[in-house]
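Incident review: delayed structure delivery

Summary: a single-chain prediction request sat in the queue longer than the usual turnaround. Root cause was a stuck worker, restarted by the on-call engineer. No data loss occurred. The affected request and its eventual output are reproduced below so the record is complete for anyone auditing the incident later.

Affected input:
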Amino acid sequence: MIADRGNSRLLIVTPEKKIIWSMTIGTGKGSKGASSLGADDAFFTPDYKHIIINEEDNMVVAVIDIATKKIIWHYGHAGIASNRPGYLNTPDDAYMLPNGLVTVADIKNMRILFINQKGQIVKQYGNGLWAHNPPVSYASPNGDTPLPDGGMLITEIDGSYADRLNKSGKLLYTVHFRDISYPSDTQLLKNGNLLTVDYNTPGRIEEVTPQGKVVWEYYKASGPGMLSSPSLSFQLPNGDFILNDDKNDRVVIIDPKTNKIVWQYGHTGVPGTAPGYLNTPDGMDFLPPNVKIPGVNS
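Output delivered after worker restart:
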């Protein structure tokens, strides 16, 4: 699944590059067509019947029913930034947990929220102060990746950090990304290392140990392999890394053994709406081949 932000739409695309489901969300206005109503990120819910999105510029998170393409739940007030109950300020990476709670990295409010289905904040990480002092406070958190053990991996833009918490919110460790000035949406790999991207041009992907040692990276200073503001990468079951290369208008898969791009959806640096084209794709998620979702492969 791809959150095609500049086109204000969501797409589910097969490995053969066939679009099997799509939904338009916003108006497509703004820089490079980026919509204030479009999805910044999008993730499947645990039951694969819904998609949860964050509208970063619109100050809202929402849950979409895949079968009906209807928004069935939302939190925040469209276009209004605030730290008051019911409001957000630049929300990023909304997830639905198995227990039904919604988490979101509320970047400019310097906090991670846990919200129930009634729209009530039931837990919060961060006291709202702009400071790297986990687990007390965070400096512009833009990632809140839920972990299999019930913990969370928080990414902090300012200072370039990732903080791993256990399910009780206790800090297990912090990693400082020394080569990255704008880390985005750090993920935990099965081997225990962290995978993060540098939201810059040229962009970078790094695999880093919990001790901060870089064990793999992809970086090209120029040419067709150069990344431009990648914002999310994760590992596929075959070991390759997929990432959305935002300002290159493409999603690519990189083989870490060869450090080469082995698959691409989108035309590099050419935004468009036709099949095979994207415009500033800013989020994605993986649909396992054995999972059937309503209206797509059921």
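Verification: Residues 45 and 96 are 6 Å apart (CA to CA).
Action items: add queue-age alerting; document worker restart procedure.
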